[in-house]
Amino acid sequence: MQKIRIGIVGYGNLGKGVEYSIRQNPDMELVAVFTRRSPESVQASVPVISLDEVEQYQDRIDVMLLCGGSATDLPIQGPAMAKLFNIVDSFDTHARIPEYFEEVNQQAEGNGHVAVISTGWDPGLFSLSRLLFEAVLPEGNAYTFWGKGVSQGHSDAIRRVPGVKNGVQYTIPSTEAVERVRNGENPELTTREKHLRECFVVAEEGADLKEIEKTIVNMPNYFADYDTVVNFINEEELKANHSGIPHGGLVLHSGVTGEGTTQVMEFGLNLGSNPEFTSSVLVAYARAVHRLSQRGERGARTVFDIPFGLLSPKSAEQLRAELL
Amino acid sequence: MQKIRIGIVGYGNLGKGVEYSIRQNPDMELVAVFTRRSPESVQASVPVISLDEVEQYQDRIDVMLLCGGSATDLPIQGPAMAKLFNIVDSFDTHARIPEYFEEVNQQAEGNGHVAVISTGWDPGLFSLSRLLFEAVLPEGNAYTFWGKGVSQGHSDAIRRVPGVKNGVQYTIPSTEAVERVRNGENPELTTREKHLRECFVVAEEGADLKEIEKTIVNMPNYFADYDTVVNFINEEELKANHSGIPHGGLVLHSGVTGEGTTQVMEFGLNLGSNPEFTSSVLVAYARAVHRLSQRGERGARTVFDIPFGLLSPKSAEQLRAELL
Q1: Whether A24 and A116 share a structural domain
Q2: How far is residue B114's CA from residue B296's CA, in Å, rounded to a whole number?
Q3: Does B70 show up as a binding residue in the annotation?
Q4: For the segment A229-272, what is each residue's pLDDT rounded down to a tens digit?
Q5: Which of the residues B130, B304, B322 would you substitute to probe the A interface, choosing the one with the greatest number of A C-beta atoms within 10 Å?
Q6: Where does NADP(+) bind (chains A, B) (predicted)?
Q7: Range list of H helices, chain A
Q8: What are the beta bridge partners of residue A116?
Q9: Residues from chain A contacting residue B123 (CB–CB below 8 Å)
Q10: CB contact under 8 A, A257 and B280
Q11: B130 chain-A contacts, CB cut-off 8 A
Q12: B99 in a domain, yes or no?
């Protein structure tokens, strides 16, 4: 059987995660990594090519996995790559998904490619759960909790506080709030009741720790609406205990059927590495994209349009016999 | 908009659950209930028709929901109804699914109908989770836990024990086993380690309770391989506290990415009523069946073949904007 030939655009944490994931999927092979950096400055297990030359690889790559960021990379790379290749990406600016979908769709549709956008876990597997849960239990309430996990945005915000040398922020779902939803109480939860924020901060020598803590916990948008705990630690401790990128969360749905029967559905992730997990999801969707393309389909899709059977290397017969 | 016209074959707990569920879905209407019993002996909110006359309803029903049992009803009704209608069923004899699929497919394909078989939660939503989890984390272990919930088969087995007047059996997942999986330990679990069985038994007057307990806990296939607790209660207590049909369970998958990073995925259900929840799943899949049929598709499908987008009454645009 011919392997599915994969390319990676962007070689940060996500791109490296894809490289690892491909090794766990014997029906795929990684062909090349494409970068905007100088290719000789990047070390990978496959050839590293300048993104300027990507067009020459149209016949050598079945699916291109876009591993750039949603703020500035994907709005440009998504449509540009969908013109040349079948693509999968993890565009995660929720509010801009509709317009991004249209732009990618235009290029994919017009050039005979298939594109799955906004996959990963949120958007992605969490979105699938939200859809499934409300379709099955239309009279009910949905709740999404994130964490325990590192928020890059909040960690960056801490590091911008005067007197802070380094820092990491964890988002933590409130155990009490989760239990209330699981018990079918259908609570109305404020922002403060849903999540806590815990910060591990390395201060510069001689900095005013009280002042740093006050600045963090009162920071508008980031911390003011939450209960926030600030822990001061040293650089060694930060490196030793807080250099991983764990994350995860829960989608919960509490609904009612019949004459007031409570039904609770739950999907949860506990991830040792957020980017490695996200890339594993992208790789599974690359398999689906390849199959759709081989059937002659074209245009943009989301996780909502892809049957799960296309994600597995197993045949439909095998799936029915082994997993149903 | 024209409503999706639904029929029910079989009016037990599952059929009644469908009747309730349709009321929560304004894009559907229940047309009739079909029964093998004498129609005048059955009370429903819609006309009750003898199953012998079902053929006359081909133009009046878009999707027929088969609510009979897997042991004797569905093996006959599945293919027979797929000849006449688009159908959805919950055939749950795992080992016989492949042959059942072929039989239904032959009738559906040959007569221009769409059939989704073996939906509900297991098989159904649990199967989807098993597939998704192993597709995303191919290097990992899957675990399915059932309960806490009533097992009809085990409850029946108790009631056949001499001296037993009535009884209910609960299957309960071991908290310790679940926690070990959640912690990424990848344990090898024996049958005894995964689930406990708890029985509530009403004994006949003068019966030997010690003897009943001994017979239950040593019963081969049903209880011998498990730790089983037997509680004797009176008939009033059984009615008051054990007449619901709760169930649920967990699908857990513990996998590894990158260089040994642990990733845990989980799907869980906590159901106040097993049949009411199962019927809510059937109804969501009826919507998908109707849409596939309107596109001109034909043949048998499983949950693995149906994109989640088809389960929701919302348009693709709405789903992308609201739920992705």
Answers
A1: yes
A2: 9
A3: yes
A4: 999 999 999 999 999 999 999 999 999 999 999 999 999 999 99
A5: B304
A6: 11-14, 35-37, 67-70, 90-92, 119-123
A7: 13-23, 73-84, 97-111, 125-136, 152-159, 175-182, 191-194, 209-217, 235-241, 274-294, 316-322
A8: A88, A301
A9: 324
A10: yes
A11: 323
A12: yes
Structure tokens at B117: 């078989």
Single residue among B193, B228, B245 that ends a domain in this structure:
B245
What number of residues does chain B have? 324
What span, in angstroms and rounded, lies between the C-alpha atoms of B133 and A205? 47
**Of B206, B227, B245, which closes a domain?**
B245
Coil vs helix vs strand at A245:
strand
A182: closest chain B residue by CA: B270
What span, in angstroms and rounded, lies between the C-alpha atoms of B266 and B125?
A: 12
CATH of residue B314's domain is 3.40.50.720
Same-domain check for residues A92 and A171: no
**Confidence tier at A152 by pLDDT (50, 70, 90):** confident
Span between the terminal Cα atoms of chain A, in Å: 26
Is residue B137 situated within a structural domain? no
Is the pLDDT reported for residue B152 higher than 90? no
Helix axis angle, A97-111 to A73-84, nearest 10°: 20
ipTM: 0.96
Question: A273–B261: do the CB atoms touch at under 8 Å?
Answer: yes
Nearest CB to A324 within list B20, B123, B321: B123
pLDDT at A1 > cutoff 80: no
For residue A131, being part of any structural domain is answered with no
Rounded to the nearest angstrom, the gap between the alpha carbon of residue A140 and the centroid of all alpha carbons in its chain is 26
- Cβ atoms of B65 and B59 within 8 Å: the answer is no
B245: three-class secondary structure by DSSP: strand
In this complex, the residue of B270, B302, B323 whose CB is nearest that of residue A127 is: B323
Structural domain count of chain B: 2
| CB nearest A98 (choices: B268, B305, B320) | B320
Task: Write down the H helix ranges in chain B.
Answer: 13-23, 73-84, 97-111, 125-136, 152-159, 175-182, 191-194, 209-217, 235-241, 274-294, 316-322
3-state class (DSSP) for residue A255: strand
Residue B89 lies in a domain: yes
**CATH code of the domain in which B189 resides:** 3.30.360.10
A&B contacts, CB < 8 Å? 202
Domain that includes residue B229, residue range: 149-245
The answer to whether A14 is annotated as binding is yes
